[in-house]
Amino acid sequence: MDKTIYKNRRNNLKDILPENSVLLIPGADLQYRNADSTFPFRQDSSFYYMSGFCEPESLIAIVNNKDGINSIMFVPPKDKLKEIWDGYRAGPIGAVEDFLFDKAFDNIQIDSMLPDILYGSEQVLYPIGKKSGFDQKVIDWTTAASSKDRHSKSINIIDASSLIGNARLIKDDHEIDLIKKACDISAEAHITAMKSVKKGDLEQHVESLYIHEFSKRGARYPAYNPIVAGGENACVLHYVENNQALNGSDLLLVDAGCEYEMYAADITRTFPISGKFSEEQLKVYEIVLEAMNAAIECVRPGNSIMEPQEISEKVITKGLVKIGLLDGDPEELHKSGAYKDFYMHKIGHWLGLDVHDAGDYMEGDDFMKFKPGMITTIEPGIYISSSMNVDDKWKGIGVRIEDDILVTDDGNENLTKKVPSDPREIESLMS
Ligand code: GLY
Ligand code: MN
Ligand code: MN
């Protein structure tokens, strides 16, 4: 595949990197699960964003000086024996020829070469605190670079998390296409699940259906551990045990999205295992859906990210008062945060290479404003666990609905609307 897009991203750093600086982006390492068994390798998202390169133990150094941007990559060395066991390595020649870096070296040269690369620069930027052991390495390389000439300017170490994250926040057309594909695949899986789920199934059977549906459409892995939560399990926000049998009178909450060519989708649907919502389930569901629709309306250029948050809190508070789960004046209850017993998480997050994607939520002292090319999730919920002091008929109802919303020039596009969220449409799909 043509890697020009990644080279252009590196060259674009000219506009945002300080003069006379070096940006370091470490790649991910292979992670051990137990003994010598490893997790499937997943490249670090920022590293991938700047390189398209998927080998572990690599490092990018981007030098910005008066000559312009110079991109250097350190990669695993070519090694005939290791390649027989573990597969092809691009090596430094491949990193230059195929991945379009200006220079590339074996990663075993990192410690000896980095002080020379940093020497003479005024700032070294990297994502501080993100990779275990890397902070100390940067300090050591910087100290070694500074000690080359006691009389040279000192090198300041700066956190690059916001700089890289905010570059990733606005998605380009290539990224939007991949996220749309991830959303389509994930939506298809939710539709298949709605059509096939039945009482007595284990939550993990439903989970495996999603993984299968993702994989057969080209997305081998989920973007995060799927949450498949029958009944009250939905009230555990990050429930991932997924091992209980489904009860015919319960709702099933599934929060599952695939990763397609490194990009995430993040969809939640809540549907009745019997195929029909009970009266109480429907009342709670409709409040969440109203909050969802009102929040999506607020996702448009120029609006603060707090607008969907606030409207979702207000709609949910009003709805809870209407069905008798909160008592009092909705405005006062909103101000006091009474809704937080039922709706305790935020309305959404950025979506991209990571499911909780990089990018700030504040600009200076203000909340970020939506801009075209951003993608956010919108995911209101109401969770009524059996330990709450409410009428028994409400207990064990947990509802969340989550869609992925692209900010466009004049509003937004819901990338996951293909999977129904309207309760009547869900019931008809399940019948
Ligand atoms: N799937 C994780 C989340 O919705 O934030
Ligand atoms: Mn989410
Ligand atoms: Mn989710």
Account of the protein in words:
This protein is α+β, with helices and mostly antiparallel strands and 431 residues long. The chain has two domains: 4-168, 3-Layer(aba) Sandwich (Creatine Amidinohydrolase, Chain A, domain 1); 170-430, Alpha-Beta Complex (Creatine Amidinohydrolase), CATH 3.90.230.10. 35% of the residues lie in helices and 20% in strands. It is built from 13 helices and 21 strands. It has helices at 4-12, 45-51, 80-86, 91-97, 110-118, 134-146, 161-169, 173-196, 203-216, 279-297, 306-322, 330-336, 423-430, and strands at residues 21-26, 32-34, 37-38, 59-65, 68-75, 103-106, 123-126, 156-159, 221-222, 227-230, 251-255, 258-260, 263-264, 268-272, 362-363, 366-367, 375-378, 381-384, 397-400, 403-408, 411-414. A six-stranded mixed sheet has the order 6-5-4-1-7-8, sandwiched between helices. Helix 8 (173-196) packs across helix 9 (203-216) and helix 10 (279-297) packs antiparallel against helix 11 (306-322). The longest helix has 24 residues, at 173-196. It is globular. The structure holds glycine and manganese (II) ion (2 copies). Residues 224, 255, 266, 349, 355, 379, 402 line the site of glycine (GLY).
